[in-house]
Design goal:
Length: 454
């Protein structure tokens, strides 16, 4: 059977992984990488899968850490990226860190040597030609302007090429409900609401003033040179920018206390921090309006000053950087196809995942989904109990499209553990994480076995 080639645009981690998965399944691939004919402000070499921001793939602990579970699943699935990472590992304690040059050279050599992969150097300016039947776009956060503009025109989405200011996300089970309470402002139900849709954390005047001072004094990240001319996105001003405009700005903005009755006093607090449900499972809540460029350690310290969040565990801390990503819950289907043009699939950071490992995972899934389709096999998505499935579910529908922002893998995205009626206390902490990890790896192995059987 003669198969038309799949065109993969972007030779980063996601694009290289997608191309490898397709080729290993027997599908010919043309991998397009614009470097060195067109350079970026961040890359230094012409190698595929060049690591730009860090040489770390984060924790390799597959027993208690969600990203470590994702590592293990990617290894189970025959990831090229993780084969190269393991071969070029450098000492980093419990993390998987690599020799940058050796790693990217190994990926480049493997891709170049594969008989079913053709590597073409050159920019794909604008949407792919109409005669390209199957395309995976894996262009990452530095998507070239012509292609980004074409995607924006096709999707009607505006979430491309601006400073995306990201608010922190908190694990619900770490919030102190002896202080915090559920209530919508003035008990308004709204579309699909109940009148108790927000978690509220109250501050008195002294607590507010101390919090404000900490925000203003906190250590903040600097922009890279090539980011400095990118404007803020309207409506996503960092809290420290608002705080600098005057001591009452936050209290009349995201910390506005009106219409909220503290059940401990029966009165409106001096200021309130609200958290809004961030995923369908109801395990994660984002801090409303708290976009920030405070450094990570400062965020954890400052945000734990908020009553009710003193023991907060963060699924994601805030950030501010230039990015290019789709509102995937709105524009992609469960197989990563663009609803407006299903011949186009997306992979990697452009889909709204954060980090090298997550980008690789979505590249692997995009490649495997398209390979199955090309070969006439069932397209079987990984179950939501796996790290791969949890990540896929989140970006293609589990997240709230109205507040969608890039996300790392974390246990808050996994389908919850079933309650055991024979156990009085359900697992918590490390025991709970271990239970998630065991189930994920077993279910991933079963999924891979079912795919191979198909």
């Amino acid at each position: 059977m003669s198969l038309s080639p799949v065109h993969v645009i972007g030779g980063g981690l996601a694009g290289s992984e997608a191309a490898w998965q397709l080729a290993e399944a027997g599908v010919p691939v043309v991998l397009h990488e614009m470097r060195p004919l067109r350079r970026t402000d961040a890359h230094q070499t012409d190698h595929l899968a060049e690591l730009v921001c860090s040489n770390s793939f984060r924790s390799d602990d597959a027993e208690y850490n969600a990203v470590g579970v994702l590592h293990a699943e990617l290894r189970q699935a025959g990831s090229l990226i993780f084969r190269a990472a393991d071969a070029h590992q450098v000492p980093a304690g419990g993390a998987l860190a690599v020799d940058r040059d050796g790693f990217s050279a190994a990926v480049t050599e493997a891709i170049a040597a594969h008989p079913l992969i053709t590597l073409e150097r050159g920019e794909v300016a604008g949407l792919p030609p109409a005669d390209w039947q199957d395309v995976i776009i894996a262009t990452g956060p530095l998507t070239s302007a012509p292609l980004a503009d074409a995607i924006r025109a096709l999707t009607g989405e505006e979430s491309l090429a601006f400073f995306d200011a990201i608010a922190p996300i908190v694990h619900k089970d770490s919030i102190n409900f002896e202080i915090a309470w559920f209530q919508s402002r003035y008990n308004k139900e709204g579309p699909g609401g109940t009148g108790s849709d927000y978690i509220n954390c109250p501050l008195n005047r002294e607590e507010y003033e101390a919090f404000l001072a900490a925000v203003l004094a906190g250590d903040k990240t600097d922009f890279k040179e090539w980011e400095k001319d990118t404007p803020y996105f309207d409506g996503c001003l960092p809290i420290e920018v608002m705080a600098a405009r005057g001591p009452e700005t936050l209290r009349f903005g995201p910390m506005k206390p009106v219409g909220l009755d503290d059940p401990r006093t029966g009165r409106w607090p001096y200021a309130v921090v609200q958290l809004r449900q961030d995923n369908k499972l109801g395990t994660l809540y984002n801090i409303v309006g708290f976009q920030t460029k405070l450094k990570y350690a400062e965020q954890a310290r400052v945000f734990r000053m908020i009553p009710g969040l003193e023991n907060a565990e963060f699924a994601r801390l805030g950030g501010l950087h230039r990015n290019t990503f789709l509102n995937s819950p709105r524009v992609l289907d469960g197989q990563l196809r663009l609803k407006a043009d299903p011949r186009l699939r997306f992979a990697g950071q452009v889909t709204g995942v954060e980090g090298y490992v997550e980008s690789t995972a979505i590249g692997l899934l995009a490649g495997r989904f398209l390979a199955a389709e090309k070969l006439g096999r069932p397209v079987l998505p990984p179950p939501p109990t796996t790290a791969l499935g949890a990540l896929l579910t989140h970006i293609t529908g589990g997240a709230n499209a109205e507040t969608f922002q890039p996300m790392n893998i974390n246990f808050g995205l996994f389908a919850d553990l079933p309650a055991d009626p024979n156990v009085k206390k359900q697992p918590k902490g490390r025991e709970r994480k271990a239970a998630f990890a065991r189930r994920a790896l077993a279910d991933c192995a079963a999924w891979l076995g079912a795919r191979n059987a198909a």
